[in-house]
Amino acid sequence: MTGQSTFFVELAETAAMLEKASRSSLVALDELGRGTATLDGAAIASAVLSHMTHTIGCRGLFATHYHHLSAEHARDPGVAIMHMACTVGGGDDDAVEATAPAKDDAMATVEDVTFLYKLTPGACPKSYGTNVARLAGLPAAVVARAATVAAQTQGDATRLSTEQQRALQDLAQLLRGQPEAGDLVAAQKRVVEAMAA
């Protein structure tokens, strides 16, 4: 596959695996979709996971950092959601296994995370990418800035998601009844505005 992008090669290899896989196969995929834009990568990863479990019916190991896939497939009987455990805390006395999101102090996750390399049931409670950046030797100022940007971005994404959900819930509630045309148009406009914001 000379002259092909890394992403193209990744998808060609995935296509070959899916074509040859059967119910008795074990398919391992690591970070599928990482070579493209986040939304496209996440969509491809989700579709491939669904295809593996529902169309092929094979067993697989599917490692991803697309956290929303855990929620998307949480009720899927063909998917067991697991994560690699870690402890968050400054020492043995105050270290606790991370099973819920840490407080909003982004620097705590940079300084005080220890990876346990232990497979644990459930979704990973949050990302510890800035800690990995620190362990990899990025300058402290870069890691601190990354932690700040990550915290701000997460806050923006959460707020936007809440606004979108509220607009969609209002529209759904309206559609359950017999809405007036003007009310329906106004509700649809709020949904469009929330999605565009």
Automatic annotation (TrEMBL):
* One Gene Ontology term from the biological process aspect of the record: mismatch repair
The record, for Gene3D superfamilies, names: P-loop containing nucleotide triphosphate hydrolases
Keywords of the record = ATP-binding, DNA-binding, Nucleotide-binding
GO cellular component terms, semicolon-separated: MutSalpha complex
Q: GO MF terms on file?
A: ATP binding; ATP-dependent DNA damage sensor activity; mismatched DNA binding
Coiled coil residues, start to end: none
Domain (DNA mismatch repair proteins mutS family) ranges: 1-151
| Entry's family note | Belongs to the DNA mismatch repair MutS family.
Q: What is this protein called?
A: DNA mismatch repair protein
